[in-house]
Amino acid sequence: MAMDISVVNALTYEEFVNLFGNVVEKCPIISAAIWSHRPFKDLADIEAHIMGFIHSLPDSGKEGILRCHPDLAGRDLQSGTLTRESQEEQSQAGMTTLDSAEIQHMYRLNSKYKERFGFPFVICARLNNKADIVRQLTERLKNDRAEERERAIEEVKKICSLRLNNIVLSDIQTKL
User: Fold this and answer.
1) Which of 24, 59, 102, 116 meets the CB 3.0–4.6 Å disulfide criterion with 98?
2) Nearest to residue 128, comparing CAs of 87, 74, 166, 92?
3) 47-59 pLDDT, tens digit each
4) Average per-residue pLDDT in the chain?
5) How far apart are CA 82 and CA 87, in angstroms?
6) In whole angstroms, what is the distance from residue 171 CA to residue 75 CA?
7) What DSSP string describes 108-174?
């Protein structure tokens, strides 16, 4: 259940980091860093602070964020160690119902991608299906490192935005 911004602003530091610590996959440092900007005006204000933090990072920091993401249909999914959010997102995209040939294909593509770029392939699974994911993974292998880093960070921002919307009521929701 999404909460009102006044409830978010009343959270202690620990509560805030616990609640928002995974809006960027396995990066609670981001929510820890923006907590001091309270009170937030609205959902867009929280999102702006998170995006500003990410934008301000050097390339190595951005790649660090990307390395926190699991492979799609990868080891974490197979072993059941995905975060709750990633599990739901991969499931929505159809990545949890791949047959063994599709799993092997994804493994090969993920391996090529990580070898080429040094971080895992990141895409907003909630906005894509498995065919789109495979197509984009194949196409994005053609990018250069800088271009792909920025593309992947844009996908992180989409994921973050959707996850924030699951936590905080937007102004539109509160006026309905």
Assistant:
1) 102
2) 92
3) 999 999 999 999 9
4) 95
5) 6
6) 39
7) HHHHHHHHHHSS-----GGG--HHHHHHHHHHHTTS-HHHHHHHHHHHHHHHHHHHHHHHB--HHHH
Which pair of structure tokens corresponds to residue 116? Answer: 């080429």
Across the chain, how many H-helices and E-strands are there?
Answer: 11, 0
Measured distance CA(175)–CA(170) in Å, rounded? 9
**3-class DSSP assignment, residue 102:** helix
Model pLDDT for residues 88-121, shown as the tens digit of each residue: 999 999 999 999 999 999 999 999 999 999 999 9
| Residue 69 a catalytic site member | yes
| DSSP 8-state code for residue 71 | P
Measured CA to CA, the distance from residue 89 to residue 75 in angstroms comes to 16
Of the residues 37, 49, 55, 69, only one is catalytic, namely 69
What is the rounded (10 degree) CA torsion for 81, 86, 92, 98?
-40
Which residues are registered as beta bridge partners of 3?
Answer: 168
